[in-house]
Amino acid sequence: LLFPVSNLCGKCRPRDTDLLQPSLNFLYWTLHQTTPCSQQRAVAVLLSNVSLLELLQKVLECTWLWSPPSRPAYLSPEDALLCSGWLLVASLLLYQHRYNTEVHQTLSVDLTEVLNAVIFRNKKPILLLVSIMQFLRAVLRQNFSSSLLVIVGQNTATSGTEPQPSSLQDTALHPLAMQQVFSLVVSLQNLLVHKDLLLSQAVVACLETLVEYLYVKNQDVALHVASQPWHRFLLFTLLSGGQKSFLQPEVLRLMTLFVRYQSRNIISQKEISQIIHEAAEANIAELPEATSCALHLFLSQV
User: Fold this and answer.
1) At 109, phi and psi to the nearest 5?
2) In Å, what is the CA distance from 292 to each residue of 9, 206, 248, 288?
3) C-alpha–C-alpha distance, residues 180 and 168, integer Å
4) Do the Cβ atoms of 6 and 47 come closer than 8 Å?
5) Which of 69, 85, 222, 229 could anchor a disulfide with 214, C-beta 3.0 to 4.6 Å?
């Protein structure tokens, strides 16, 4: 089925949402649900289809064209197609890297547009934001070096001039700039305050991947980002309201991040003891899977 469905996609236009959206979803789930052996073949089939990749390029570009100020808060058919497109491309990036699959056609993405989509949001539906963050995580994990992807809008130092301190940091973090990093971190924190479960999971995962990327590029910058005082206020905000327990997946994963990068001004021995105390009193077998996994990671890190 991959052959006819992917060929059908390649003959469509981005406006053919009724046909494209379920087709892209089928391709996405085929990649994720098949066996590892079949998965490698499926990736090869999709990446060899030039017309499909050209269609995906057009779909991604529509993200910036279909964003009027008056767009509805609910998920329109156009936004649903964009979600499917970004998730499929993120998956193709992941599996192409895993299997080192030959690439017949590259995709081009403007990094500034991707970052601005998360930083400024512009009334984008939550599911579209989550899909774009999945893509951002994929390129961060691959150090912006995928053979499937061409990043445009990169920050480059001016030749012939001696870099200033900020420029030196920008060079180390290339293709990101320091200002983009801090704007992205603040926006992720603000999105986390919404306390939407799906959004929270995506935001924390994106923040984890971002700090890991920064740590490889420049440890001082990564530790500086991880120890921002605003993080502690964010934790208090997440623990406010009806659910005060530390045993929330997004809280545990944030705590794990701060322990990993030794942010002692954010998480103290008192908070660590309180989490362990709550875990000791909880019925581990009855905890949701997301909470159980997050608790395991936290205790392993401690």
Assistant:
1) -135, 135
2) 40, 20, 10, 6
3) 15
4) no
5) 222
Residue 183 to residue 213: CA distance in whole angstroms: 16
- Residue 150's H or E segment, with its range, is strand 149-152
Give Cα 255 to chain centroid, integer Å: 19
CB atoms within 10 A of CB 284: 11
Distance of CA 118 to the CA centre of its chain: 10
Distance CA 275, CA 99 (A): 39
pLDDT tens for each residue of 45-70: 999 999 999 999 999 999 998 755 55
What are phi and psi for residue 108, nearest 5 degrees? -115, 130
Q: Where are the domains of the chain?
A: 1-110+123-152
Give the C-alpha separation, 191 to 94, whole Å. 25
Q: Which two tokens stand for residue 150?
A: 């061409």
- Looking from the CA of 98 toward its CB, the CA atoms found within 13 Å total 16
| 228: DSSP letter | -
Q: In this structure, are residues 178 and 166 in contact, taking their beta carbons and an 8 Å threshold?
A: yes
pLDDT in the model for residue 162:
41
Residue 157 has pLDDT above 60, yes or no: no
Which CA distances in Å does 62 have to 66, 146, 153, 284? 6, 22, 17, 45
Please give the torsion angle defined by the CA atoms of residues 141, 176, 104 and 55, in that order, rounded to the nearest 10 degrees: 100
